[in-house]
Amino acid sequence: MHPSREWRLRNLNAAASRENDPAKGFRGFACYAALPALELERAGEIAQFRWDCIERSLSMLYDRVDCQDFAMAALIRMLHRYPESRLLTSQRRQAIADACLQAKYHPLDPGADACVWFTENHQALYFSTEYLLGQLFPDAEFANTGKLGCWHRERGRERMYQWLDHRTRFGFCEWNAMGYYSMNVVALLNLAEFAADPILRHRAHVVLELLLFHVAINTWRGIGAGSQGRAYEHQIKGMPEMVRFAQALWWAKEGVAVSERTTLFLCASDYDVPAILGQVARDLDRPVVCRERHSLHPDAGPAYGVYPDRQRDIWFWGAAGMIEHENVVDTHYAWFNGEGRNSKYWSSRDHYRACRVAGKPTGTEDIGYAMTTANVYTYRTPDYLLSCTQSYRPGCPGNIQHIWTAVLGPQATIYGTNPVVDGAIPNGRPGPWQGNGILPHAVQCRNVLLALYRIRPKQIRYFTEPWPIQERVHIWVPRQHLDEVVDQDGRLYIRRGPTYLAIASNPPGAWRDDNEWNIEGPDIALALEAGSERDDGSFADFIIRQAASQLEGDRDRLVYHSPSVGALTTGWQQPLTVNGTVQPTDDYPRFDNPWCQADFGVTHFDLHCGSEARTLDAQLRS
Question: Looking at the whole model, is its pTM more than 0.85?
Fold first, then answer.
């Protein structure tokens, strides 16, 4: 469905009348509560205007705290879109402008801050806001730097061009992260509507629609689904922002997204989401395999013109979580002129130098927040979705990556992690139900997913204590949202409506808590197989066939005899084979699915679904 004027106004009125008080919540999103009244005023309607919410967000820009850029995106939209608003009096507009003009937009700019600068979504927000603010006030002095707005406009434009180029050619380092995609959307919508540079505006449109295409592929019946580069427990088990957006827009579910930032931005814009994206999201008449590739590793970067030893590319390696990698850390050091942001800022660099002097391994790949090359495999059927990022950095720590997942229905998401000791890591990354102490070797072919866990004590670079991992894997099984759960001979069989899932492991699993299926040991082999009534008959018949399937696995090799796929083998240092044929699990195209075929690194994409077609080409052609 297209976002009609009536749909927009309905969402805006619902958001304006919500009961909870945004002035008491997170400051970064408080000012979003003022958007409905401003947009309704523009449409000739009246709603309560929340200046107090704007003031709450403005304080972040003066305090220079993390996520101030979340607020900046809404503030710059207000300045650009509502110049004639009676609600935004000249005094109020000046208050917003003053806060933005004194703010900090770059880590090398003067003044202390407590901000995260390098992650992908933060980059888009800072670059786009700096550009659009400089465009709006080209002759004004930015108080923090003493530079004119036109200087900041050009710095923001240069960074934004690079960010858009990287996302177009290499996908998203925070791949399919439904919580963080929402912040990319607000930055891209601002550029697509307000950028005076026509090429920049066009490329923002292209990346916005590529992002929404990813959302269409990796949600299922309006439910959060596929593997993600960054996902928190409440997002995996619940309903992250971009999923609410998809529900409201593509699945016509009323009342699910009325106060969410992505929907508010869309409603407070003139952008029309192409109809083909909704068609792709709803195209569930047959099973399909979707393969996609995101991001780069420093070893592969030079082949695509992104170099670990060039300061111009430091932003890409920051987005990929690689600024502490051994090949990048000296570039990062030089970029900062050796001035660390805290006393431990160069600890990784010091560690590598000490290891090289001592002739010891550096452990450079043990970076938990790394988001390098991700080959994502998703099997989407009318009855379920099963998704995995193929063999993603096995044996490394994984702070927040969501590696594999099965979705059987609303709130019926099944996934597993190698948990760390509860409370041992202050920021909870990883935690009991998000990220992994040690990442598995996980691979998938259609409806079968295999995972090997080799859980070993690990001393990570400069940390004084070993990584607090537990020698076990646990699987989230939300029994209250399932119709049948059968525990039989250490295996688990699950039914939600007409959809089934079998879980087998070596060693066998057992219940640890109401919704926690637990497998103990340092070496674990795991096999999941999804099925359905239309493919497998009754649930009882499915259990009988699955119970007879053989699973053999140790720390090096896994052999599984699937009733539906056949003989599958893999190993810690071995490929995935199906009935003796090696299956590709790396070097995926940018897109390989029924709706788009595109090589990795290209800038032209042809989408097609049913009678709809759309071309996305980053090169602006007359």
Answer: yes
Mean pLDDT calculated for residue range 106-113: 96
Sole residue written with tokens 């970067």: 301
Calculate the CA dihedral of residues 159, 164, 165, 171 and round it to 10 degrees: 130
Q: What does the pLDDT read at residue 1?
A: 53
d(CA 185, CA 266): 9
pLDDT tens digit sequence for 22-50: 767 899 999 999 999 999 999 999 999 99
Check if the beta carbon of residue 236 is closer than 8 Å to that of residue 415: yes
Six-digit token string for 217: 């592929």
Exposure string over 94-119, b if 16+ CB within 10 A, otherwise e: ebbbebbbebbbbeeeeeebebebbb
pLDDT, mean of residues 103-132: 97
Q: Half-sphere exposure of 578 toward its Cβ, with a 13 Å CA cutoff?
A: 16
- Angle separating helix axes 5-16 and 35-42, nearest 10 degrees: 140
How many CB atoms neighbour CB 516 within 10 A? 16
3-state secondary structure of 597: strand
What Rg, from alpha-carbon coordinates, does the chain have?
25
Instruction: Tell me the percentage of the chain whose pLDDT exceeds 90.
Output: 86
518 CA to centre of own chain: 27
What digits encode the pLDDT tens for the residues 480-530? 999 999 999 999 999 999 999 999 999 999 999 999 999 999 999 999 999
Q: How confident is the model at residue 340 (pLDDT cuts 50, 70, 90)?
A: confident
Q: What is the mean pLDDT of residues 397-402?
A: 96
* Amino acid at site 86: R
What are the residue boundaries of the structural domains of the chain, listed by start? 5-292, 301-358, 384-585
CA geometry: angle at 145 spanning 142 and 150, to 5°?
50
Strand partners, 612: 609
Q: What's the distance, CA 179 to chain centroid?
A: 6
14 sits in which H/E element: helix 5-16
242-288 per-position pLDDT tens digit: 888 888 889 876 654 455 788 899 999 999 999 999 999 999 999 99
Mean pLDDT (whole number) for 129-152: 98
**pLDDT one-digit tens code per residue, 92-102:** 999 999 999 99
Tokens of 2: 């297209």
Distance (Å, whole) CA 390 – CA 381: 19
User: At 192, which helix (H) or strand (E)?
Assistant: helix 181-194
Adjacent-strand bridge partners of 442: 451
Contacts of 24 (CB under 8 A, 6+ apart): none
DSSP H helices, 19-89, are: 27-30, 35-42, 51-63, 68-81
**What is the longest distance spanned by two Cα atoms in the chain?**
75
Burial of 147 (0-12, 13-18, 19+ CB in 10 A): middle
Number of residues written out for the chain? 622
The sign of the torsion formed by the CA atoms of 47, 51, 52, 57 equals positive
Dihedral angle, C-alpha 78, 3, 260, 239, nearest 10 °: -160
Q: Given the structure tokens 């039914």, which residue do they identify?
A: 495
Q: Positive or negative, the Cα torsion across 251, 533, 377, 178?
A: positive
What is the Cα–Cα distance from 441 to 574, expressed in whole angstroms?
10
